[in-house]
Amino acid sequence: MTAVAESPVVLFSKTVGDQIESQVRERLGSSCTCSCFGSLKQLKGLKPTEFYYVANLRDISPESLDSMRSAVTAKHRRFLVFLEDMPVEALAERIPYLHVRRPDRLQMFRASTLSERIDILTRFLAALCGPAPESSIVHAWAELEDLILLSPRFRRLRVPLARLASLRPFKGLDRGTLEDFRVDPDGSYVHWPIPDVHMGWEQLEQLVSPYTPIRHKQQASEFNRRFGAAIRELRTRAGIAQSRIEGLTERHLRRIEKGEQRATLAALEALAAAHDLDTNGYLACLRDSLS
After folding, report:
1. Distance CA 212, CA 114 (A)
2. CB–CB of 12/38 below 8 Å?
3. Domain residue ranges of the chain, discontinuous segments joined by +
4. What is the CATH number of domain 134-205?
């Protein structure tokens, strides 16, 4: 009989299990709610909706992957692979074995030292099984002109370093200082020792798209009610009638202000224009009103 696993299922390859599994489990303690396994036999009869195979590059072979695919039927299958000290030339042969066609199905880490691999895997499992996996940070790195954040489901957030450098605490800092950061052990934020700044996923996401974090919160009716009240407060304080918002009907705006309908980006842009503000400035005013 096949049982459907609701929580994420993680399978460690043999060398990962031998090297670091016990240290990672010790660090996490009882906080990890993922189902973690060290062999395919333990997965018998389990059908995960979300499956992760954590392996060293040396473990990736047609035989090992065929066995894994035969044993595990999963809607979402992802691979976390440590390169260790394997040469980069080995990637060309092994990547095709994974049958991966999307970037959110695979993440590779150089992680040449054991402590690096333990840190990454601990943070990955803590974030994956935490309350907010989509806004947790497993890893971060500088790539060309961008800061890249990685979520436990391998979603990547690309933040231009120039946008970061425009913030007041970072102004005047050189490229080397901007790239000198650490990810918090539980993936809550990125820390820059100079100028001693902590920023989480949502804060950095706002630099790229100010509306995106609000859109996530709008799934909750209570937030929509409070957000609508803040919109109404700003409008009445500015002395703007509901009928004066170009691009919004009075009925539409009334529903937004009552929290009965979420404010779309187009609606927020129309409201910002009516207040003689750009969208970022208007959202900043709303955040102040909500806090």
Report:
1. 37
2. yes
3. 3-130, 134-205, 212-290
4. 3.30.2020.40
What topology is assigned to 212-290 in CATH? 434 Repressor (Amino-terminal Domain) (1.10.260)
Q: Does the global pTM surpass 0.90?
A: no
Alpha carbons 217 and 226: distance in angstroms, whole number: 11
69-128 pLDDT, tens per residue?
A: 887 777 778 999 999 889 999 999 999 999 988 999 999 998 888 999 999 999 998 888
3-state secondary structure 34-49: CEEECCHHHHCCEEEC
Q: How far apart are CA 233 and CA 286, in angstroms?
A: 9
Where are the strands (E) in the chain, listed by range?
Answer: 3-5, 9-12, 35-37, 46-48, 50-56, 76-82, 106-109, 139-143, 146-150, 156-160, 182-183, 190-192, 197-199
Residue pair 255/261 in contact by the 8 Å Cβ criterion:
yes
The values of phi and psi at residue 130, to 5°, are -80, 180
Fold of 3-130: Rossmann fold (3.40.50)
